[in-house]
Design goal:
This protein is an alpha+beta fold. The protein is built from 2 helices and 10 strands, in the order H-E-E-E-E-E-E-E-E-E-E-H. The termini are far apart. The structure holds dinuclear copper ion. Dinuclear copper ion (CUA) binds next to loops.
């Protein structure tokens, strides 16, 4: 080895090689990230997450879709399942939701005061709730059982105590329970 004859030269060559390796790795990571940004940017621009629907916060409790009697799970004449709920500091209404498994369920929700949000257990049911706007999405639940639904947008001092429960029933159980009931929830009476 020439390490004894020219140690400075050898260590410099090793350093240059190591730097070049790092430059290649970092360059590849940057290229990958930029490619991801371009792909997701174009993809979402072509498919916006949802349309914009507004609602008047001041009259929310008095009239329209989000009055108290209309909250909870409804089964339409066409069999479509819709869950309506509102978020407020620091609770959801209803506090306990009932949904069927293996069935498309449409959520329609809004906030009465500040920005809230929710996620249901480990499912993809996840949205922000912004006052003045209706958040809506449709999803299916694969597993029956009970899930927690915490608020996931910091909304004030009571944020960490803000959560609801969701009961996912089998489609048959849900159907039996919803028969003759206009709005379904599992809030204890
Ligand atoms: Cu509501 Cu955090």
């Amino acid at each position: 080895m020439s390490a004894t004859s020219a140690p400075g030269h050898l260590s410099e060559a090793i350093a240059v090689a190591a730097e070049r390796r790092w430059a290649i790795v970092v360059g590849a990571i940057l290229a990958l990230l930029v490619a991801m940004m371009v792909v997701t940017g174009l993809h979402w621009a072509a498919m916006p997450p949802s349309r914009v629907e507004t609602v008047d916060v001041k009259t929310l409790h008095l009239a329209g879709e989000f009055v108290e009697g209309n909250l909870g799970t409804a089964v339409g004449a066409d069999g479509k399942v819709t869950v309506r709920l509102i978020a407020q500091q620091y609770s959801f209404q209803p506090q306990c939701l009932v949904v069927p498994a293996d069935t498309p369920v449409t959520f329609r929700a809004t906030s009465t005061d500040t920005i809230h949000g929710f996620v249901i257990g480990t499912t993809n049911a996840n949205t922000m709730l912004v006052p003045g706007f209706v958040s809506t999405f449709t999803t299916s639940f694969r597993k029956t059982g009970e899930a927690l639904m915490p608020c996931h947008e910091y909304c004030g001092a009571g944020h960490e105590a803000m959560w609801a429960r969701v009961q996912v029933l089998s489609a048959a159980d849900f159907l039996a329970k919803s028969r003759g009931v206009e709005r379904l929830s599992c809030v204890a009476r």
